[in-house]
Amino acid sequence: MKHCKTILLIIFILCSKQLFAQVLTLDTILSRIEQNNPMLKMYDEQITGVQNYSQMTKSWMPPKISVGKWQTPYESLNEGMWMISAEQMIPNPSKQQANYDYMQGMTDIESQKKFAKRNEMFAIAKQVYYSWIVLKKKHEVLVQTDSLLDYIIQVAQIRYTFNKEKLTTIYKAQADLFVIRNMETMVLGDMKMKNIELNTLMNAVSSAEFDIDTTIQIHNYEAQANDTMLISTVRSDIKQYDAGINTAKLQQEFERTKRFPEFGVSVTHMQSTSSMPSQFSVMGMMSLPFVPWASKDYQANIQGLDNTINAINYQKQSEINEIAGEIASLQTQIRSVKQQLNAYKEKITPAFFNSYQSSLIGYQQNTEDLFTVLDGLKMYRMAKTDELDQLQALLSLEVRYEKEMEIR
According to the model, what pLDDT value does residue 394 have? Predict the structure, then answer.
């Protein structure tokens, strides 16, 4: 009695684990990826790092201090003076602000890199999630086929006892049943792999088990009108080009401020060691970066940055054209696969199921043989599997479209 209670408790625990398994929606998984994935956290640190680096643009050059003998004759080292000198260069505020704006502009580039990487991870997660859904539906088909085959074998065995069925045919049916159960095991293993893949993306423990919501929403992406302006506003990699252009322009502004002079002050005190009076000097300093031999540096950089901006613009336009062509191709493929999927749902799969049912009725009425029933069931299973393959293809195309248009 004690062993029976233990067995019942174990069964209850196992059943409860399956019954109350956590169900995660696709949106929940995407949110956890965004919050926990270490690759995205890396970009957050890089963005913060650039912001911290930009603070150095507000700094001043360190002061210089000099101490030593001044105007001391070689014949008498006791004569002359001790000199203490201090110098401080004062940075140009316009140059500092321009450099700060340039450094801050680089954070936008890092932000768009993060969004582009997030979009890639979302696309991977969606592909895995939808593949898991299709696998669950395929498993349901296999379980249904398993049940039908098991029923057919039981009927055939009863008929065999009355010499109305052949033993070889029963063995054929049993072999088909074992094949189906082997396929069930394979599909369950594939579903487990999808579980692990999603856990990896969410930075969760790989062995953590959860279930998914099998609700599928098919979109009308093939009817969407997508122009180059829309692509420019939604794609992070295109925005990254814009951020790069803006950063190059800010760098140009910084280079232009290099023509502004900078000022400094120098204070010197000479302490006499003899009868000579002590002296001091206060000198102002100004740099002259606009002279021809010094201006070549920033002028060359300004011109070079013009070329960089033009190159980024051409690269951006090329990328937009490729994306527009890819989107148009995806819309055509989506339209075609939808037509094939509807044909399976409305015509092909129902026709094979009706064929199977007719053969089973005929077998029960002794007008059909068992081979015909088995063949009908196999053809129905294959048609249903092909239908799910078409669904998988459609969902994959939608994921690719959402990746191109950065739709969450």
Answer: 97
CA torsion through residues 248, 242, 51, 48, sign: negative
In a domain, 218, yes or no: yes
Task: Specify the 3-state DSSP secondary structure of 86.
Answer: strand
* pTM of the predicted structure, to 2 decimals: 0.86
Strand partners, 85: 66, 268
| Residue 283 covered by a domain | no
Beta bridge partners of 279: 270
8 A C-beta contact, residue 289 and residue 222: no
What total number of domains does the chain contain? 1
Domain that holds residue 145: 23-60+94-260+291-405
Alpha-carbon span 127 to 123, nearest angstrom = 6
Number of H helices, E strands in the chain: 10, 6
Alpha-carbon span 268 to 270, nearest angstrom: 7
Give dist(CA 51, CA 2) in Å, integer.
67
Beta strand 23-24 with 211-212: parallel, antiparallel or unpaired?
A: parallel
Q: What integer best gives the mean pLDDT of the chain?
A: 90
In a domain, 104, yes or no: yes
Neighbours of 380 (CB within 10 A): 24
